[in-house]
Amino acid sequence: MPHKYDIGAIGDPEASRRPRPPKPVHRIRDDKEAIEIAYALAESFHPGASERDRERRLPWEEIEAYTESGLGAITVPRAYGGTGASFETLSKVFEILCSADPALGQIPQNHFGVLALVHDIGTEEQRARVYADVLAGYRIGNAGPERKTKRVNIATTRLEQCRERLLLSGERFYSTGAIFAHYIPTRALDHEGRAVQVWVRSDEPGVTVIDDWNSFGQRTTASGTVIFDKVAVDPLFVFPVHAFLDKPGLAGPVSQIIQAAIDAGIASAALRDTLDFVREKARPWVDSGVERAVDDPTIVHEVGSLFTNLNAAQEILYEAGRLLDAVAKEPVTAESSARASVAVAEAKILTTEIALEASEKLFDLAGSAATRAGHNLDRHWRNARVHTLHDPVRWKYHLIGNYELNGALPARHQWN
Questions:
Q1: Whole-prediction pTM value?
Q2: Phi then psi for 145, rounded to 5 degrees?
Q3: pLDDT in tens, 69-89
């Protein structure tokens, strides 16, 4: 039976900016149902995407619909009551949602990224608690890198032991999903100067989430500031990442394949609107000798080229997902982790390039009328340009070249 999610009226954009308490969510049976639900949600999300971007209106009701659908729990292993969906399916779900609204679709990216880290380094007690909460409808956000340091991997955020309590203090930025989240993880240094990941409840005293994200693209991800002011931390939610720096895992490739899938969704959205505009509004060039833009041979050629590049990027993306699935079935080694990073880097290159190409070619093919502000088609290029800057694609070429030429294994972090 087809899945249908009616998000209803959006409501007042100045409404409460606190996430609602979790409530029971749908349990997705298998990968096939996850894909069906993603398409149903995308159909519901797409009509309001342009206006949300134009008005910079945060998608509160849409995020609640997404959560209730159960998609947030699809990577929870079956042994813990989840779907245990494949990484190929995860990439397809992100691509589908982002083809409808890439800013909305990006919001859960850190949710799945940190779940992959929990799988890699969490204790049995930590996994059981986190997975149970996710199945109960809890959302996980992120408090990203600090903005005022000279290097992205420098942290001044501290987890300090104060008598018998752990207290977290610091200020973070690029915090996609934090404003919608029940848990906000962040990187910090403990009292010995060691790297840890710390999770706090978003409603804990001392937590402040500020919607000060003002980028020209991905405008409604609310990827702004999070301030921790002596926030009490449950020791169960401290993950000692320093102890696993040399342990191979898949958290990095999983984080990156999600980024690649988002870019594939942006490309699909741009191509969809290109076709619609050319069919319905564009005029053929005066020298073409045809009556309709769809018969202009240069437009036909360019559309063929764009779809070839998109299909190639999608296939490499799905192939990377299948490789991650194969690697995950065995104990992860340094070599298998490296293969996963290389495969995802190849996908990231192609999805980055087609997202930028498709969003730029839209105007070349659709013509000057497509630039009118009322159409808001520039959002595709703005979204592509901003999101593809998460990590420079030039370093993906370097990663692959260094691996193939010199046998150098990629560094292990969230950008590889």
A1: 0.94
A2: -60, 155
A3: 999 999 999 999 999 999 999
